[in-house]
Amino acid sequence: MDALLRTLFQSFAKSQSVGRMARRYGLRFGAGRFVAGETIEGAIDAVRALNATGREATLDHLGEFVSTEAEAELSTRMCLKTLDAIADAGVKANLSLKLTSLGLGISEQICLNNLTTILNRARLHGLFVRIDMEDFAQCEKTISLYKRLREQIDNVGIVIQAYLYRSLDDIEELKSLKPNLRLVKGAYKESPTVAYPAKPDVDENFKRLISTHLKNGGYAAIATHDSQIIDYAQQTIQELAVPPDRYEFQMLYGIREDLQLTLVHEGYRVRVYVPFGSDWFGYFMRRLAERPANVWFVLKNLFK
Ligand code: FAD
């Protein structure tokens, strides 16, 4: 049953028409637990609340897979506005974005131009930008674009997904760039020809990625709610005597708040991924796919 629901939510996540239909119901049916509202102001308020409890944030203006240049420009403008809002508010946050929202699916050059504009604005404000990793079809393009940029710019990082067979090789190949990598399990529906289908294999690979990247000397953002992986990371950090300015833990807004606060109290740097905006549907469906038990939460909210 769980596997069926997972596949269903993963398919919904990609469906524009289901997304349009669902958005008509607004945030009422549960997305509000995972999304910090539709406006920048609401998102900045959420970041203030996180900062007040010792957590930092990364803001993501939701949006993906745009198909016109005008839409890509609009997403770019929203990223610029978000960076300005972070700087104006003086909150502890940086920016996460998706390359398909900047036009990666239209042309790599359009995407690169938009991303460069964003990175320049971020640099003006002294802010960091993380490129999220999307489905496998974007992986090679995203990594090669990152490599080109990283040679000239240092306020940019990328994400590596533990479910992909290629990820350990990617980490080794990126080593010389001393990259800032967010390590995650991976949230998209992928073919077993490119990704481990079984969770224990993903978890083992996640551990390999953590130790390899920490040994290689880059910055590690360990992004998971899985206590076993977090324990493993803490042990490895201790064994390798990795200094605190070379790693942080990251979790998603609305998930395992108890664990986020425990890590803060233990003295770890914790960053929460705070998504906001009207295009919340695909993100929301991926959160349901990760944990089909969340569907009860949605059903309860449908009738509120
Ligand atoms: P799991 O084994 O899935 O979960 C461990 C425990 O966490 C569960 O038992 C449960 O208690 C809790 N939990 C996990 N998910 C949920 C949920 N949805 N609702 C309620 N409880 C839950 N993926 C990408 O593909 N690309 C990215 O760029 C990307 N960026 C991310 C950024 C951050 C900061 C984080 C935390 C995740 C990101 N992800 C990204 C998602 C990631 O790939 C996983 O899908 C997600 O984190 C769930 O896996 P997990 O590591 O928490 O482990």
Automatic annotation (TrEMBL):
Keywords: FAD, Flavoprotein, Nucleotide-binding, Oxidoreductase, Proline metabolism. Its EC number is 1.5.5.2. SUPFAM superfamilies: FAD-linked oxidoreductase (SSF51730). Its cofactor is FAD. Residues 44-298 form the Proline dehydrogenase domain. The keyword Flavoprotein applies. Pathway: Amino-acid degradation; L-proline degradation into L-glutamate; L-glutamate from L-proline: step 1/2. It catalyses: L-proline + a quinone = (S)-1-pyrroline-5-carboxylate + a quinol + H(+). The keyword Flavoprotein applies. It comes from the Bacteria. This is proline dehydrogenase. It comes from Paenibacillus rhizolycopersici.
